[in-house]
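Q: What would this chain look like folded?
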Amino acid sequence: MKKGSIRKKLKKSFQGERVFRLLKNLKELYKYRVLIQNLVSRELKARYRGTILGFLWSFFNPLLLMIVYTVVFGFIIRPRDPTIGASPWLYALFLFCGVLPWTWFSSSSLESANVLMTHGNLIKKILFPAEILPIVVVSSNLIHFSFGLPILFIFIPIFGKPFTPFILFLPVVVFIQYVFSLGFSFLISSLTVHFRDIKDILANWLTFWFFATPIVYPISFETIKKSRFLKIFLNLNPMTHVMQGYQNCLFYGAPLHWGKLLITFLFAVALFFVGYYIFDRLRDSFPEEV
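A: My prediction, written as structure tokens:
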């Protein structure tokens, strides 16, 4: 399909019939829940097929990552923010509270960029719903994220941080990130089919996005406080508020910023519908492009 025709399709306004079809397709996704579960299970098994430790790598990978961040950022690059404290162990724990969910998001995004081409044989089948592929990618990475949480829970008391009642709000933050990741994956996966350069651009963009999100530094950092531009820039980043949610639940033991999280959730829902709308508009062209 020519690129000009793609642009024309995307420029058309929302039509009543198209919106109705969109909502109908979303509703029918529930019918494919067993298929989604089976594909997620197959993806998890395929990831560690042929390895000696198998699924144990889901626990060892976060543990090794925790050790690396403790050594590099805790002892070599010393913490400099008073809200974290001078302990290198606490700084490593602060980093891990953000790196773990970011790994879920970045892995989902990168895999989604290639998922339709990888499973082209399935897309060419008439009755196969292509939209479940990005869902499988995000869901399987969510499970890997869940496997890393016990490692984090073990190190929280070891490093001297108490568990607080605010940890009960962790599922709320996870759900917001899940919706946001789904919307972004729908958008990326559908556009990459026609614009293959997106895969290379995305890898660099995610690197910039990582450092533009308060993960290796707290938002209370002195440099940020003194710069009005940086404060506005970081607050416009939806992942800022998601990461703050994790940090408040797990590290600071502080209340969530419900107002900011609500705005982030509404943005995530909007991105989900926009991403799925574009995916739905381009789905007919997938078989011939992959």
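The CA atoms of residues 183 and 273 lie 7 Å apart.
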